[in-house]
Amino acid sequence: MTGIVDFNSKVLEESLSDLGIKGTWLNLLATHIPDTPEFGYILENKFFKSAKRAKVDILTGLSIGEIGVLYEYSVTFCDRDSRKSNGQFFTPDDVAIYMAEQSKNFGGCVVRSLFRNRQFNLALDFDSR
User: Fold this and answer.
1) Kind and range of the H or E element at 115?
2) Per-residue pLDDT at 89
């Protein structure tokens, strides 16, 4: 897998339907976290007792931002109304970029947009004037 653009949500949706959000994400993390002494303490945690490693790691090749998008998708898939009732709202990338660009005109700070590997990062440099 090369990124979120190529991601096939069918496997994720089937797991969410069968196991719910908690079971699905425990399994995804148990599959993705290397089984090495360095990370063994994570997998030995009581939360991972029921987790099962999948045959395929669907998180491979994804950035932390893309994994976050999949988690938000999972929340919406399992309970669409929970995001709104919990005050969680998603700002689309194009809107966030526009807002960042417009904020350059605000007094007191300069906003830089950094684009790397199709990820959007926002850095604030406060003007000392």
Assistant:
1) strand 109-116
2) 62
